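User: Design a sequence. Structure:
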């Protein structure tokens, strides 16, 4: 597996710039307070945002720009809007009418992400923002031609981009889960590519583990296609060919030289079986002085951990 790039550090002056641009709680739109940074307009329900929040947002933007600017070149100059509700209750009852189970919304037409503050787990809050912002940027690319991306590709990419782990993905819950997941639980690729868990599996009687397996498979395949190959341009080419229409085999051949889904399945499963994945996870476990297996952290957390 080759990493063609690493996450760049945030420019030292950016935090100062964000502070200078802050409009503070006096700049309100209705009941919203507003803070403006280099790449975001943040509408926050509480008078003030969490400590260091703007800096964290700009780090997310810098990381996503490295992976997704080919899909959304506008993100270098245009600001995204982020609504931050003070709690889940006001988020669910708010003007955007989100599903009650959701942790966030992305609306690419207005370049807007909507989330609520998770005071007990700010790390999760940032992961949700990374996840939903990825949806916004990627869905916008498909929306240019009035299409929607395949569900597995859209979700897998958003999961891959949740955390700041480009240089050390083994620190991600998804990577750790993938490393220990039983590949025999994965769906055949053709059926998998045509399945959406929110519509096809919602009332199917399948248990949470079967649904979780779909998400792990989506993460694993996208990670393999995006970061398990020599150039990130291959992933862009693959997505471009899919967006143009035609069989997925054509896109796979043009971008990766896999003639059939069976060829992709064999290459992906071979990569997945490499013991290096478990070794990386074990090193993370050892460095954290956390005895025992990190086998299935997503499964252990339950359905809400992978459903955004």
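Assistant: Done.
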């Amino acid at each position: 597996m080759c990493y063609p790039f690493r996450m760049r550090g945030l420019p030292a002056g950016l935090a100062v710039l964000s502070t200078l641009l802050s409009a503070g709680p006096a700049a309100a739109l209705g009941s919203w307070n507003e803070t403006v940074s280099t790449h975001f307009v943040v509408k926050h329900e509480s008078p003030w945002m969490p400590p260091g929040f703007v800096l964290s947002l700009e780090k997310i933007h810098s990381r996503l720009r490295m992976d997704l600017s080919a899909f959304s070149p506008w993100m270098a100059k245009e600001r995204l809007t982020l609504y931050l509700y003070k709690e889940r209750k006001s988020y669910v009852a708010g003007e955007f009418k989100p599903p009650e189970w959701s942790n966030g919304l992305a609306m690419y037409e207005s370049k807007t992400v909507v989330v609520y503050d998770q005071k007990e787990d700010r790390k999760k809050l940032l992961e949700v923002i990374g996840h939903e912002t990825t949806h916004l940027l990627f869905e916008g690319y498909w929306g240019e031609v009035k299409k929607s991306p395949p569900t597995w590709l859209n979700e897998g990419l958003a999961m891959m981009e949740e955390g700041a782990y480009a240089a050390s993905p083994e620190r991600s819950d998804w990577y750790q889960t993938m490393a220990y997941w039983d590949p025999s639980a994965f769906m055949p690729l053709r059926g998998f590519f045509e399945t959406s868990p929110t519509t096809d599996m919602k009332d199917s009687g399948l248990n949470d583990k079967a649904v979780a397996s779909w998400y792990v498979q989506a993460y694993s395949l996208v990670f393999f296609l995006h970061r398990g190959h020599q150039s990130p341009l291959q992933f862009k080419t693959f997505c471009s060919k899919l967006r143009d229409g035609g069989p997925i085999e054509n896109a796979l051949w043009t971008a990766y030289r896999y003639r059939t889904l069976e060829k992709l399945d064999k290459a992906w499963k071979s990569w997945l079986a490499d013991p290096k994945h478990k070794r990386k996870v074990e090193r993370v476990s050892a460095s954290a002085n956390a005895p025992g297996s990190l086998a299935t952290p997503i499964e252990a957390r339950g359905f809400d951990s992978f459903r955004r």
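Residues 1-30, 290-296, 298-307 have pLDDT under 50 and may be disordered. The first helix runs from residue 14 to 21.
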